[in-house]
Every structure is written in C-alpha cells, then in structure tokens.
From TrEMBL:
Residues 188-285 form the Peptidase M20 dimerisation domain. Keywords: Hydrolase, Manganese, Metal-binding. This is Amidohydrolase. Its cofactor is Mn(2+). CDD domains: M20_Acy1-like. The Mn(2+) ion enhances activity. One of its GO terms (molecular function) is N-acetyldiaminopimelate deacetylase activity. Coiled coil: none annotated. It comes from Hydrogenophaga crocea. It comes from the Bacteria.
Amino acid sequence: MTNLIESISAYQDELVAIRQDFHKNPELGFEEHRTAARIAAYLNALGIPTHTGIGRTGVVGVIEGRSTTSGASVGLRADMDALPIIELGQAPYKSCVPGRMHGCGHDGHCAILLGTARYLSQTRRFNGTVYLFFQPGEEGHAGAREMIQEGLFERFPAQRVFALHNWPSLPAGHVGLNEGPMMAAIDRIHIRVQGKGGHGAHPHQAIDPILVASQIVSTVHTIVSRSVNPADSAVVSFQSIQAGSPDALSVIPDGATLDGMVKWFKPQVQDVVRRRLHEVVSAVAAAHGAHAELRYDELYPPTINTPGEARLLASVAQRLLGHDKVDAQMEPSMGSEDFAFMLQQRPGAYFRLGQGMQEGRFLHHPMYDFNDTTIPVGSALFSALVEEAMPL
C-alpha cells in the first residue's frame, strides 16, 4: 500500500498548488462560490460527473468503479469553508481577503479529496460507486444538514460515509480514531438579563444587570461539576458578555446579554445541563430582583463512529502507514463537527490526520497553516479505504 502514497505523490505539486490557491482565496460558509467552481472544474477535467449547488454551494462528484455489480457505495466528505479570522502568517499564499482565512485546514481537506478523485478516476480498482461530497458551511452553519435536507442521500445514496480532519497535535502523517464518540455535540445559549438602569453612584436605586450577569456566569460554571455525573463529559463556556457603554461613565445599564455554548456526548447529559441552566438563570436573576430569559438552541449532534467502519478504517490505515502510526483508541475531542449529521443518516467513521505540531499554531489560530506534506497521505487513505470497502 505504500506504493499508493508514492503514486499520489507524483502529482503532489499540483495538489499543493490547488490547496494554496484555496488558502489565498478563502470563503465563508455558503459563500464558497469560487471554491466550488474550482473544485467542479477540476472534477470535470478528470471526466467525473459533477453536480453543483447542493446545500447552496456544495459539490458532489460521482466515480464508478470498473464494475458496479456489487451495488456498494461509499461517500467521502471534505468541508470547504474558511473562518472570519485575520490571518497573521506571512506565507506567499496568505489570505488576500481581509478578515478571512483558512484557519482550520479545510483548504487541505479539499485538496486531499481532489487527490483521491484523481487517483480513483484513473485506476477505478473497485466494484461500486464513490460519491465525493464537497460540503459548505461546516463552521457553525450546519452545511452537512443543509445538503441532507436538499436530498443528498436520495440523489447520491452512499451506504457508508467517511471524513477526515487535520490534527496539529498528532505527528505528521499519523492517524487517530476510535470506535465511538469522536467529537462532542454543541448547543448555543443566549441569555438576556433585564435589570433597572440608574446612576453608578446610587446603585441602591438600580438593579445592576452586570452584577446579575456575573453571578449567572459564576453559578453556571458549577453545573458541570455538581450536576453532571463525574464519569461523563460536558463543557459550558461563555464567549461574550455585552452591557452598557465604556463611554457612559457612572451609568448602570438596564440590561445585559450573554452568549455561550454547551458541549456533550450523551443526550441525558444535555438534558441535565439544559434543565439546570434554565433553573440557575431564572433563580439568580430573581435573587437580585431582576429578570432573565434563556434561549437554548441545539446546533450539532455528537460525532459518533460506528464500530465496523472504524475498525475497517483503522485496518486500512495500519496497512498503509504501519501500526506505530495509527492510534485506534484515540481520546474524543470536545470540539464539534457537522459530519455528525451524515453519521446520523449512515454508518461511517471520522478520523484525524496528523499535521505535526507547529509552535502555538492550533486550529483556528491566526497563524495556522495546513501541512502540505500530508496531502498524499490523506488521499491515499481515502483511496485505499474505497478499494478495501468495495473490492473488485
């Protein structure tokens, strides 16, 4: 199988050029028009039947093997969108779009799947059909759900689905996965605190919403430690508190808003956290004579590999890379991933492809950059998986 990596490495320069072009021209979720057009053009040039506009800006390529008598089919997904981050790196291909960058490596994921497309379309050493899912809007836009709602699996009935994500904390070219939960679910919380405005020198005449919001934050952070079973995992974090104006000296505002997120793996944990959030928010506000309302929005479910597909993927990776480069019992991440929606519809597996640690440059960091040397490895893994799952 090592020869497979060598075969794909023959056109690595081409794939790197494509990846760096994507990096230079990042597009946010559901705005990936240029990216989608470039992907579609590449697939069409390979003679691959290509469908566009699925899930708004999604692209699907269809590759049939030398035979399709097995009736088997596999879906491979790559996400296309960038992030609203100002890039601080100085690569010659750094983002030319202000306030936009590929800080999560989706540019590399697309290049990997295009490398897979080229190899499989040229060799076709499998019996069945491969669907290449280039998905928009992974970063908080639920692009996978959008594609599914627009009939993805009715039009392209993949029986099993697979996806990868680059992972900076793994050595370059190594693989990590497990047979169960890989990524946590994510829900969004929005809290509106209604107090009573007043003069900062006369706080007894007001109901300070900033104080109430601060108390809510402190109390909410006891939910996981005191209401969730210690054997389970959950995270509650706030990313924003908005109240008043820095220019309004000695003014107590009349309201405040808080925004945050909840992460979980088990539905019963979600139930506990959601119930306790409502109780805490209401009780803390009432204790101060204020009023508060919580809006709780479910975003992504947990990303959970099915055991059979995870074992298949691990076996392929071990033969391709060697047992020492594959961790088949990798610890789950509390990050989230909307490939979870596809795994709710079909059995499949999600794995991590090591990038090699760059000092301080984690995913979503303004200086993060995908490791181009891993493109042939990712393409080879996808290709070998197809050939193993649908042998001639």
